[in-house]
Sequence to fold (554 residues):
Amino acid sequence: MADEAGETEPLVAETPAEETPAEETPAETPEEPVAAPVAAEEAAPAEEAAPAKDEKEAPKTELKSFVGEGDSCHFPDWIFSIAWISSIIIVIYLAWDYGFPSLENLESLMANYVDEEEIDELETATKVLYIPLYCIGIVSAGSIVWIIIMLLCGKLLMWSFLIAIIGGSGYAAVALYLGGSPTGSYLAMPFAIICVFMCMYAYMISARIAFASVTLNIATHVILEYFSLLFMALIMIAVTAVYLIVWFVGLIGLYIYLTYECDDDECSGATNTLIIYFIMLLFFFWTAEVLKNIVVVTTVGVVALWWTGQGTMLAVPMSFCRATTWNLGAICFGSLLIAIVTTCVAIIGFLETQAKKSGNKIAEYALMCLGCLMKCLEECIKYMTAYAFCFVGIYGHSFMKAGYEVLVCIATDLPLLITNDGLVGTVVMMGQLIMAAGSAYTANYLFEYKDWADGLEAATSEDDAQSNLVLMGASIGWGVSGILFGLITAGNKAALILWKEKPEYLKESHPAFYEELDYIWTVSMGRVKAEAAAASDGEKADEPAAAEEGKEEA
Fold:
């Protein structure tokens, strides 16, 4: 044990022996004490600078996604989606049970009114269906070109429309005044007033033209970036056409049954017949509106995902899935309101025509006034539901909740909504007119240089066939381009709502668009200055209350 202790003692003593030379080293290296404080001084600011860097990066917080946040209440307004699906089942049942069997006997029924040669001519006239297909293809391609033009020259198109009105009215006023006609000076006055009014209007909304051009730019940018939205819209057009065929077959079968086969007294009642046709017409308008608004809600959802920086290659399928599942009830609810009013307008128009044929002027004028009021109601409902569907697509609200948000927007900022929609709608309307004219020209060209309409011409007459085809081509151009340009309109409304409510997300995801909109909003329109003044007034109003609370606490 003693040996072991003796052995351990030198080990304990060696430790200070090793430390003493380390204490004497400063004498040999006098430079280190000078260098050490410098290193410490340099390290200290670096340590102090690190928190400053963290403080700059601290405000960069990840923003919470708000797209579809209302979907937590799964399937709002689900009862309307069930009712809509039931209407489709009813139409298919009528077509299957009444329509297709009636078509088999259609030739024997038509033999009572037309000859066999005329029936053969109608069968050969099916080649005329090639003409609307060509028109749809040309209108689709032309609509894409016009969307690109709106992306590049949206602001120029808005100004060109105003300048054309100003220049045209001014030229008409000067020409009439200098024409030498005794009534020329009187006729020049309205055009001069229009010219002056439009000059004042253009000056007042110059800033809003800049703002509307940016929102239009955002909408066209998103549509062209997610090009599959256009294909989805064309597919919905095809689905609507298929439903129209099925609905028409069912309507024919129902008409033949009520007219020739039904022996019940209820079938001959004019009121019951009118109710039946009213419901059938309601079913068609309802389904057409639902299919159209599915495209609108999908587009709004894609714009919202792009706005938050979540726009991936799955943005369109995700938004379409939400529109056809969680948001379908709200879409069916809003579409039903539009369909009811549209059906009433159509029925009133039919009754007005019957009153005109019967010579009942009182009924004719009364129905004319009623139809005018219903048409105004229809346009108001369409305008409000268009914004309601934006809230449905962005947040996933029910239709009632979305309608409440629309009323708040209208109450707080109606002039901005009307001006922005009017400017963008003008550019869209110009495109629709161009597409309608191009489609009508295409139909007329195919009629003159192809033999596809020979059967239709033989069944009717050359002038009637040509005029009907031109009118059909113009209708196709207006309708198809209206659906495709509806994507732009929906995207523009969504961009306006998102800018009013969620501008910070655009700043993080797309700074260039944010800076441009923010400059127009603050400098040109002065909106933030007014809001800041209102906020400062509120703070001044809160200061006396805070002072009184301080006195009470003291």
